[in-house]
Amino acid sequence: MKRPGLFLVLMFAPFLLTACPPPSYLTVFNNTGETIEVRSGRDKDIIAGGRSDRFDFPTRDEVFRLSGGGCEYLYDFSAKLGDYYIDRTLLRGIQIQAENDFSINLLPASYKGDTPASADMILKQETFPLRPVSRKCASAPKP
Fold it and tell me: Which of 32, 34, 115, 132 could cysteine-pair with 73, CB 3.0–4.6 Å?
């Protein structure tokens, strides 16, 4: 009885494995000098200055936001990052670094550090540094 069940599992395993691609990840390094909140798709977390965290890569229908210093920054990098060096075997996926002006730089897949990268590690790409497409800042409370 166990053999037919095992046979069916082995027979359909390739279909199950190819139906759902492995997740793509985005590692965000915080080089802003302050604590920021990152929203990538449905993921949301706080990253202290000089630290990093991993998020699910947002789909085309999802957004990427950084919040810090009383402002929220919205980025559209789907077309700019979309197929660029997504190595689905890397646990870090695409590595980006938020800078103190809230621009975003691209880091090489070979970067293995746990803290923000130095300027000489930043990849020089035509579309980077990436600037936010919108910025909303909380207005100061009225007295």
Answer: 132
